[in-house]
Specification:
By secondary structure, this protein is mainly alpha-helical. Helices cover about 55% and strands about 5% of the residues. It is built from 9 helices and 3 strands, in the order αααααααβαββα. A 3-stranded antiparallel beta sheet has the order 1-3-2.
Length: about 260
């Protein structure tokens, strides 16, 4: 299992992760606690490494910046003044916030353009003949599920295992492979139609099996066999066959791409 790597052509960057964490905290960008964010950011990088996801250099640069900001804020007030003087009055917090605000502007603009594109796709030209629709109702699109949503969900599962096994030093044999877990996940989805994220790990015996199951899920998403949706932001993720998710979206357009990245 340790040799298995899941690679994606496109991967969300460090600013995406920061905006995701800010959204989770439900605070304004200008009021965010960067010291707290630094700890959470490092936790996500550790998670990515634990699952053999390739961590781009930009993540490490951002981690260094956040840790520098955190170390400055932990200094006594008089020493902070000295550090600011050495930095010629430049506060790295302001520069980072500026980058986040600018990045969010472009990200929001791109989202609006995508909405307009989807709306345009539902406009049909005047053509001869009668156009028949099986179902005129337009279901609402569900929020996009990205890699950070998946990492957040699996981290919650891992933390529950950590609480259960604290104090226990039992050694488990790694008896699962990713290929075997791929078959198990597909069988479960085929039998039940769709499952909640936590249900995939309900029978997992240890952390190693959780990791293996999660890698299997990522591979199936990458291969576009499975798709993930959320009824609302940060609600529990639901997993189903990709073609079923596509069929539920407006005008039979593909659902928001659940491939991490």
């Amino acid at each position: 299992m340790a040799e298995y790597k899941v690679q994606f052509e496109v991967f969300e960057g460090p600013l995406d992760l920061l905006l995701y964490l800010i959204k989770k905290e439900e605070v304004d960008i200008y009021e965010v606690n960067l010291t707290k964010l630094a700890t959470q950011f490092i936790e996500y990088i550790d998670l990515m490494r634990a699952f053999d996801l390739e961590v781009a250099g930009e993540f490490l640069v951002m981690a260094s910046t956040l840790m520098y900001i955190k170390s400055r804020e932990l200094l006594p007030a008089d020493q902070q003044v000295v550090v600011e003087a050495e930095d010629e009055g430049e506060d790295p917090r302001f520069e980072l916030i500026r980058q986040l605000v600018e990045y969010k502007k472009f990200k929001d603009a791109a989202a609006k353009l995508q909405t307009l594109e989807e709306r345009q796709e539902n406009i049909y030209p005047r053509v001869p003949g009668k156009i028949e629709f099986e179902n005129t109702a337009t279901p609402a699109a569900k929020p996009e599920v990205g890699i950070f949503d998946l990492l957040n969900a699996v981290n919650s599962v891992l933390k529950r295992f950590q609480e259960k096994t604290s104090g226990n030093r039992e050694i488990y044999e790694d008896k699962w492979t990713v290929s075997e877990k791929i078959e198990c996940v597909l069988k479960t989805i085929t039998e039940r139609g769709s499952v909640k994220f936590s249900e995939l790990f309900a029978s997992a015996a240890n952390r190693a099996e959780v990791v293996c199951t999660f890698l299997a899920l990522l591979e199936l998403i990458r291969l576009k066999q499975l798709a993930c949706v959320q009824p609302e932001p940060f609600a529990e993720i639901e997993i189903a066959r990709a073609e079923l998710v596509v069929a539920e979206t407006p005008a039979e357009q593909p659902a928001a791409d659940s491939t991490p990245g």
